Amino acid sequence: MENSKVLVVGGTGYIGRRIVRASLAHGHRTFILMRPEIGLNIDKLQLLLSFKAQGALLVEASMEDHRSLVAAVKQVDVVVSAISGRHFLLQIKLVEAIKEAGNIKLLKTTVTMKCRAAFLPSEFGIDPARMGHALEPGRITFDEKMEIRRAIEEASIPHTYVSANCFAAFFVPNLSQMRTLLPPKEKVHVYGDGNVKVIFMDEDDVATYTIKSIDDPRALNKTIYLRPPENILSQNELIAKWEKLSGEVLERIPIPSDEFLASMEEGTDITNQMAVGHFHHIFYEGCSTNFDIGEDGEEASLLYPEVRCTRMEDYMKRYL
Ligand code: GFR
Fold this sequence. Notes:
Number of domains: 2
Radius of gyration: 20 Å
Shape: globular
Bound molecules: ligand GFR
C-alpha cells in the first residue's frame, strides 16, 4: 500500500519529534510545519534541520496565515498535530485549512476502499470524552480537546484520536511523585492504597502506534487506546519494580484522597492545581483503566501485536 504523505504540526515538541521520527522510519514522505514564530529558537531550528537531513520536508506556514496552512495541507494525505497544551485551540485553524484544502476525503478505488484518517489532533492523554466530570482548573485540558473534536466532526473530516494515557517520563522514574522527574531517595508518597491501575507508555511507542494507525481503515473515525497489558500497573507495582532494580527500600507515605485534593486549595500555582486534578483522576479514580473500550474504540496492542512495547522496568533502567 502506498504510504500516505504526512504533515506533522508541532514536530519539534516532546511527542511531536518522536512522531516525526516514527513517520520517517515507517517510510512516509514526512512534511513538518516550520512556523515563522520559531524566531531565534535555535534548538527547534536545528532539530528541524536534522529532520531535513533525514529526508523530511520543511513547510513554512503560520497558524495565523490561513492560505499558508491550506497550501501546506494540500501537499499531504494526513495531518498529525502534536501541538502543546498551551495552544490546543490553534488547531481550529488546521481544521479550517483541511476543510478548504478538501483534498483529504475518503478515497474509493475500484480495488479497495482506501480510507485515510485525515486529521489526528493533539490528544495523547486520557480520553477527554470520558472527562466531563473533571475537576477545575485541570478540566480545561479535556474541554479544549473536546472543542477541537467537535470542530473536526462538524466538518466531517476523517480522523483518529489517540489516547496514549501516561507518558512514562512524567510518571514512571519519579514513581509518580509530583514536581519531580527523578526517582525519590528515602520516601515515596503513595496515592490512596497505591493499588489503582494506571497505564504507562514509553513515548517512542506512543509515536509508533500513532503512525501505524494513520493508514489503517480500522482506525478511521475511531479512538485508539494504548493499553498494552504489561504496561497496566499500580503505583505499588511501580515502586516494587524500582526497589528491585535499585536495591533501595523506600518508606511509603500514604496520601488519602481528601488530603491530596486539599493540596490544590493551598493557593499553589495554576499549573500545579491542574496537575493535582489530573493526578487525582489518574491515581485515585483510575480514569485510564476504569472502563471497557466500546465499539467506537480499538486497543492498539491488539491492532498492532508486532509492536514490542518498552516495559516500565526497562524504561526505569536508564535512571539507575
Ligand atoms: C495521562 O493523561 C494526561 C496526563 C492528560 O490527559 C492530561 C495531563 C496529564 C499530565 C500532565 C502532562 O503530562 O498530568 C499532569 C501533567 C504532568 C505533570 C507532572 C505536571 C505537573 C507535575 O508536577 C508532574 O509531576 C511529574
